[in-house]
Design goal:
Blueprint lengths: L14 H6 L10 E7 L6 E4 L2 E7 L1 H13 L4 E6 L17 H11 L5 E6 L12 E3 L2 E3 L1 H17 L3 E4 L6 H11 L6 E8 L6 H7 L19 H13 L3 E5 L5 H10 L4 E5 L1 H12 L5 H15 L3 E4 L2 H9 L1
Parallel strand pairs: 1-3, 1-4, 1-12, 4-5, 5-8, 8-9, 9-10, 10-11, 11-12
Antiparallel strand pairs: 2-3, 6-7
Helix pairs in contact: 2-3, 3-4, 4-5, 5-7, 8-10
Bound molecules: ligand PBG.
Ligand PBG binds next to helix 6.
């Protein structure tokens, strides 16, 4: 039996009906807002390719965190722009490092926010790679200890969740072990499990000043052509002790989000990355797209694909629209 008995349009007649039968209810409770911390006081510098997103000193970060909290966004993820970079990213593990200081400042302000930190070396190394260099290559095993110490220093400063984004093999296990050893067994790990070598990170590298000075990241980040490999990466990270997994970027990888959601019973996140944000902002500035409509559609698609956690630069705007 089909038409005229069945008429799908019956349930689309007005907003009350559409709301009643809506399958995906976009919610602020799943948003995480990314922020870039730099040294100094009262520094707030807009990233040119990411309108509305700033490099900020810790005091300014705290101010914006108050706003984030008031909008009902549950958490932030912090990236650091250190004073000094070196070959091994030494400043990334310092107790007075930029991120560590910012975490302490947020904690001191007693905000009801989850503080997540990105654990990686690329923002802290002078060569811009996510690991240390040995014989001209990004060395896997030699990087693990630095990542583990970085995660511990974030936990010590007061982070709730650490999120390794480096894509070294074995880093989740190394971080879990180090956290437990230092009695941070309650600090959870959100692993950037399937992180692709993507052109969509371009604006982030301006924001985080982390462009590789030679070569690229294809030797450690995933090939965009691979889907089954993502499942393998997720499986390994879970075996090593990841509590939650993330797929990144989001939009060109909605199929990966769906497959991971279907295969694994753990919280799944997706990172709506800088290039995805920049494309929307640029088109909106030209008057070519309606920002509220397309951002809502994009964020809904990511949650519909199966990500309950969405890291997005649109978080504040979307939270405002959802409140209204
Ligand atoms: C660090 C890191 C990157 C992003 C998050 N963590 C950049 C990269 O791998 O080059 C990208 C985030 C974004 O584009 O918004 N490794």
């Amino acid at each position: 039996m089909s038409f005229p008995t069945h008429r799908p349009r019956r349930l689309r007649r007005n907003e009350a009906l559409r709301g009643l039968v809506r399958e995906t209810r976009l919610t602020t409770a799943g948003f995480i807002y990314p922020m870039f911390v730099c040294p100094g006081q009262k520094v707030k510098k807009e990233v040119s390719s990411m309108p509305g997103i700033f490099q900020q000193s810790a005091d300014q970060i705290v101010d914006e965190c108050r706003e984030v909290e008031s909008l009902g966004i549950p958490g932030v993820i912090l990236f650091g722009l250190p004073e000094k970079k070196d070959a091994r990213g030494a400043s990334s593990t310092a107790s007075d490092g930029v991120v560590q200081r910012a975490i302490e400042a947020i904690r001191k302000a007693k905000l009801n926010l989850l503080v997540i930190t990105d654990v990686c070396l690329c923002e802290y190394t002078d060569h811009g790679h996510c690991g240390v260099i040995e014989d001209g290559e990004v060395a896997n095993d030699a990087t693990l200890d630095i990542l583990a110490r970085q995660a511990v220093s974030h936990a010590r400063a007061g982070a709730d969740i650490v999120a390794p984004s480096d894509m070294m093999d074995g880093r989740v296990g190394a971080i879990r072990e180090a956290l437990d050893e230092h009695k941070f067994e309650n600090i959870s790990i959100l692993a950037y499990a399937a992180k692709y070598s993507s052109g969509f990170y371009g604006p982030f590298r301006e924001a985080a000043e982390s462009t590789p000075q030679f070569g690229d990241r294809r030797g450690y980040q995933m090939d965009p052509a691979n889907a089954r490999e993502a499942l393998r990466e997720v499986e390994l990270d879970l075996e090593e002790g990841a509590d939650m997994v993330m797929i990144k970027p989001a939009l060109a990888y909605l199929d990966i989000i769906r497959r991971v959601r279907d295969e694994f019973d753990v919280p799944v996140g997706a990172y709506n990355v800088s290039g995805e944000y920049a494309m929307v902002k640029a088109a909106v500035q030209k008057g070519w797209l309606d920002e509220k409509r397309v951002v809502t559609e994009i964020l809904t698609s990511i949650q519909r694909a199966g990500a309950e956690i969405v890291l997005t630069y649109h978080a504040k705007d979307a939270a405002r629209w959802l409140k209204a």
